[in-house]
Specification:
The structure is a single chain. This protein has 330 residues and is mainly alpha-helical. It has 3 domains: 129 residues, no CATH class; 27 residues; 108 residues, no CATH class. The strands form 3 sheets. A 3-stranded antiparallel sheet has the order 3-5-4, with no helix packed on it. β4 and β5 form a beta hairpin. α1 packs across α2.
């Protein structure tokens, strides 16, 4: 039965993070479908209106806690480490039935979306919960626990009888002497290792069984990355080799790449929804956005029998282009 529970602290309802999530989701138009108070009893239909028009903030905090427990419970049963694979924030929204819930979790640091690997991670999940997979591996039946208990008692009895027999036969002195000699050999081995270090190679290197650790690049914000490029006299994107090869191979217009870069900066620079996001390689991260079409700025359509394609801006792309041109003209 204990395996069916997850940890819930009494102070969760008064957490500032819960309050912020409640404020972020209370203005969504479909929140009324989640709160049972928001029903038109005469027509027996759900009301689709912002929750601020109908219920109090305390109700929304209760809805938030309920949604969190529902999400954590599903993660507890269906993930091994609090990571949902092949998922984005819309998957989290579908679980709890509230649009924008995943983004709200990201804002308070309770969820992270990795577009490169298409995963949603609940940070430090195993610190507070035990996944269903681990519970099933560690769960023991009553018969197994009884058998282990009997085996422990049996081993304790055997050890006790062995000690008694050794004392009666006068083996104590011999055992202590053997133990002392064993300890001396271990100390001598340690001294030999200390006095005779590994022989250096020709280049001054020392043989080692350990593999060299790969150097991890520091994770920075996009603002820091852009400033570092300016200080080094580099261009953030236009000189990036993999991007140039991708544009050449696909025929994607360079002006579309520039448009994507402007939208990308709007999301990750100060003032954007993900301004605090950290990345070790922002160029690679942006290329991944372009390749997988996360920004939804264009689509490709066939333009000839030879397999050529034509890239056309979407409505979202046209709007982004108009905004960019307006900023440039200002």
């Amino acid at each position: 039965m204990a395996g069916d529970w997850i940890k819930m602290r009494p102070s969760l309802l008064t957490s500032p993070k819960v309050n912020l999530i409640a404020r972020m989701i209370e203005s969504t138009s479909d929140i009324g479908k989640t709160v049972s108070l928001l029903r038109d009893v005469t027509r027996n239909e759900n009301v689709t209106q912002p929750v601020t028009d109908a219920v109090t903030r305390s109700v929304m905090e209760s809805v938030t806690v309920t949604s969190l427990l529902k999400l954590w419970g599903i993660a507890n049963d269906h993930t091994s480490d609090g990571i949902f694979y092949n998922a984005d924030f819309s998957y989290i929204d579908n679980i709890v039935g509230i649009t924008g819930f995943g983004r709200a979790l990201e804002t308070v640091g309770w969820a992270e979306f990795d577009p490169e690997n298409m995963t949603v991670t609940l940070p430090n999940f195993n610190e507070y919960n035990t996944s269903g997979e681990k519970r099933s591996l560690s769960a023991k039946s009553s018969a197994e626990r009884q058998r282990e208990y009997r085996e422990r008692k049996k081993q304790e009895k055997i050890r006790a009888e062995s000690v008694t027999e050794s004392v009666n036969n006068g083996d104590v002195t011999r055992d202590v002497t053997a133990l002392r000699n064993s300890n001396r050999r271990e100390e001598k081995n340690r001294e030999d290792i200390k006095d005779n270090p590994q022989t250096p190679l020709t280049g001054g290197e020392v043989l080692s069984e350990e593999k060299p650790k790969r150097k991890r690049l520091p994770r920075t914000t996009l603002k820091t990355f852009v400033q570092a490029c300016k200080d080094a006299g580099e261009k953030p994107i236009s000189d990036y080799g993999p991007m140039l090869r991708y544009v050449e191979d696909t025929g994607l217009p360079t002006e579309f790449v520039q448009l994507a870069w402007e939208v990308f900066k709007g999301e990750f620079l100060p003032g954007g929804p993900n301004e605090s996001r950290l990345q070790a390689d922002w160029r690679k991260h942006f290329l991944n956005y372009v390749r997988k079409g996360y920004l939804r700025l264009w689509f490709a359509k066939p333009s000839g029998p030879d397999g050529a394609v034509e890239y056309v801006l979407t409505t979202q792309g046209l709007q982004a282009q108009a905004a960019m041109l307006k900023r440039e003209a200002a």
